[in-house]
Structures are given as C-alpha cells and as structure tokens.
Amino acid sequence: AAAGNAAEGAAAGIVEGKPFRSLRAGVLTTGGEVFSGRIEDKFGPVLREKLAAFGSEVVEQRFAPDDTDSIAEGIRYFLDGGVDLVLVTGGMSVDPDDRTPGAIRKSGAEIVSYGTPMLPGSMMLFGYLPGGTPVFGLPGAVIYEPYTAFDALLPRVLVGVRVTRAGITRLG
C-alpha cells in the first residue's frame, strides 16, 4: 500500500518542473547622479546578464531623476510598451529622499512586499502592475552581491509562479 501511495503522489504532481518563460524586461534606473551623467550606471549590465542567463532580455533601459512623477511615468511607459517585467533600480533604501517605492505605488502597482527577510537585498520591493505585470524595486546590493533577494524571486517570476508575501517570508 505504501508503494501505491508513493506512486499516486508522483502521479498527482508532488514535484513539478516548469520551463522558464522568455520575458521582455524594461529597466528604469533612477537617481539624479545617474540621470545627469555624473556617475555611470552599474545596474544595466548586471540585469542584462542575470536575465540572459534565464533566456530573457532587457529590451530597453531608461533613466529618471529622483522625482516621483518622472519615475511613475517611466514605469507606465514600459507598461504601455507591453514589456513582461519592469525592473526599477535605485532609491530603495529607507532614506526619506528615496522616491522609488512611492513612485511604484503611484504607477498603480499592487505592492506584495517592500522589504524581505533576506540579506543581501532586504530593501527590495515586489509587486504587480495593472494587468499583472511583475515589478521589482531593486536595491544597490543587486549590483555588488552575486546572490540577493532578487535572485531568489526572479526564477519564480520567470516560470509564472504568483509571488506572495507568505512565499517571500518562507524563502527568508
């Protein structure tokens, strides 16, 4: 009977493999210093490499100053352009000057989690834009650390799993 139960469990799909979807991502890099050209963007190359490893691509990268309306407008630009994923970089710490979390909210996103119980990358934001498009607010750790909260969640998004706050907590 035990062997029969094990076979039934396998047939019922206890373990399931899902293929990675090839997503088209828009990257919006925020920050006055990057926007003005005073400092070089470091996020773009890292995100291109991370997505390419899964068969996805960054179709466009845009830059916005630290202004809530400009950031929200940039997010809507990508959403209107039909991207499958929006990655917003910069302005994700607890500094009151950081406008990115509020701008993501203003763009109409349903925020699943702002902050994760994982280091590095604890100040990451994840949500869904209107129509179900996933959006990440990425902290600076993504540039420097080989594995962050973003790397823990990205594969789930790429296979089409709906990310929840409870799921993020379990990963922590």
Overview in brief:
With 172 residues, this protein is an alpha/beta fold. The protein has helices at residues 2-12, 32-36, 43-52, 68-80, 100-106, 141-144, 149-158, 165-171, and strands at residues 24-30, 57-64, 85-89, 110-114, 125-128, 134-138.
What features would you describe in this structure?
The protein is of the alpha/beta class. 39% of the residues lie in helices and 20% in strands. The protein contains eight helices and six strands; from the N terminus they run H-E-H-H-E-H-E-H-E-E-E-H-H-H. It has a six-stranded mixed beta sheet, with helices on both faces. Strand 5 (125-128) and strand 6 (134-138) form a beta hairpin. The termini are far apart.
Approximately how much beta-strand content do the residues carry?
15-25%
The tally of strands reads 6
Helix content, binned percent: 25-40%
Gap between N and C termini, in Å? 37 Å
Low-pLDDT segments: 1-9
Structural class: alpha/beta
Write out the strand line-up for the largest beta sheet, numbering strands in chain order: 2-1-3-6-5-4
What is the string of SSEs from the N terminus onward?
HEHHEHEHEEEHHH
State the shape. globular
